[in-house]
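Reply to dn_fold:

You asked what the input looked like. This is it:
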Amino acid sequence: TSEDMSRRIWRHKNRVPPGAKIFTMSGSYQDVRDSLTRRGWYENCDVASSCFDLKWCLKAADIHETALVSHQIVNHFSKAAAITTKCGLGRSLGNCSWFGNSDSLEFFPRSHELFDADTIADWEADFKWSAAAAVLKRVVLEGGFKSVGADVAEVARIVCNTRLCYIRDMIEEDYPGHSPALPELTAHQWAALLDSGCYTQPLPEDGGDQSWRAPPRRRDQEREDEHGLRGWTTYQQPQAEVGGLGAAQEGEVDAAMAAAAAGDGNTGSAISIAILEGAGCDGHGGVVTGEIVTVAALAPAVTATSESAPVARDRIASTTHGGSVPAKATVAATDASHGARAALDAPVDAETACVASAAFMAEVRGLVSELATRVPQWNMDGCHNVWIVKPAGKSRGRGIQCFNDYRDIVKYTQIREAVAEDRYIVQKYIETALIVRRRKFDIRQWVLVTDWNPLTIYFYDTCYVRFCASDYSLEDLSVYSHLSNNSIAKHSDEFKSKDVSDGNMWDLPTFRRHLADTRGAEGDAAWDARIKPAMINAVVSSLKCAVDMIEHRKNSFDVYGYDFVLDDDLQVWLLEINASPSMEHSTPITAQLCAQVIDDTIKVVVDVPECLKAVNAAAATATGVGAHADAGVDAGAHAEAGGAAALGAEARGPGRSSAHAHVVVNARKRHGSDDGLDRGGWELVCKDASFVPNPAYCGLELTVFGQGQSQGQGQG
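and this is what came back:
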């Protein structure tokens, strides 16, 4: 063919012996060049040439897939933007639950695209809900209203109550109707919540009351709840009984009765607001979450009948559950002497509504406790309501900023402008990140995909930790404190400080020693028992989501750079997936690891398939059976491990050294592969069964043939 002719001409011109392998590459991948030339390969410096056996380039656009021959190996799959772009990853992970037993909310901070009115409205609702949750967490953390105003706390309570009602609506199968995710509040009330200064206030130095946090969640403790929805062992259904009052509400009734009997005209001020709990909703024996009843308003009626306290409590409970309480979720401040109710369209008096009420604190603690068991990212959200804004079309940390002010985000993203310069992604920031030596860090983990059908995933057995250049603080949202990208951190004046290490990086053994030193036996076992399995789960789940979106081609592969963050419970969070991750020797850590990753990748995509073919050929010759070899990259375990002994000089191509043959044929069984071949540090973590891709929809271009007929006048 003309292709074979051009290859022969190129070989003759460049004095390359017949049978020798040829590679071409673009980008600064000296380690690729070194690894292949050690194997006797020859480089074709013309990147546009079609004369190659392997092409390694920076961008997938540099590969013209339509012109590829089946045997040619390339280092990118087509249409990988489904996972390697900020928008693509968020959309793909939205389908996570359909491809396995994972929910992306367990490992990926919720993200919003600010592209149109609907997506902007979704983010605004999430921002308001997060702000309300942060306020209530601070109330619990501080044990009162030190940095949170009473009126703000009451608005936050309404929002969180309504949110909890919405969550119950989604979980409980017998819930009638559909409740809104946010309550109907006035502009004044929303402004009071969003403009509160508590989000920028430091947390108590002693850590405060940490009861707002949910217990750490472990994937090995998952179970099915009674509704058939996957949950955690820490999850518990609300235990309130229909028609009953909680202990705090019983105390409120007793106090209200005593005050009313004494003729105290300030009963409402002393007793404040009581929230009567209910297990269900209207029509099912309970009040809708968010409805409120003032015990003080009911107390005079109770004392007028001279009922005992237990009887009174029962009657009050039955009265509220019987539907006599207005269903609208409003905030009431009651003056018991007049029996008045007033919505919180005006600020609530702190002394009347909050500070003097132990019941309010009890209600907030109960509300926070239940939300902590129902909201997967409750701990991660923290108390500052910080969000990270990322330009959709930029990489290497460019344009990324952190905010906790709604108006600042609106201004930065220009979502209110007619034409915005960039499109943005807004993602909830991980406020409870694990801090090491006062610095935030993330983990760069390499992942290799050698096939999408069947999906074949390798996980590298080591990684490195990247630290931010400045000390971590949620009161200072500087990029140097919150972004660990080397391209960003290197511009900081503190980048070259020796506080952490040279180059602001640690290798995995150093990080594991730190966990053991700071957390004892639990920290020593944490990497193998919790962190690594959670990372593998996130990797496999994220790739399965895109399996029918990415172009499948045999003899293609891709190395992805996964970025993870650990929170202070050692829960793993995925930040992003990078195509063509940087392999530069920017620090002593990367100088060692990147060369190792490249060489081990060549083992998987070049050495192992060649070895399997040679082993099969040798075994077939010895048995008289036709040779069998898989045509794909990393052909699989078709050869018996014992067949490696039959491989002699056949395993060595032109220019290949005996040392290389030893690398190719290694009797050790490595990382989940049973063929005894050496894949370096790559561990096989997933090889799914082949699947049939979804067929293209056939109704996109329908054509109607024939002529229309009109009904003539006078016809029936």
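The two ends are 70 Å apart (CA to CA).
Hope that clears it up.
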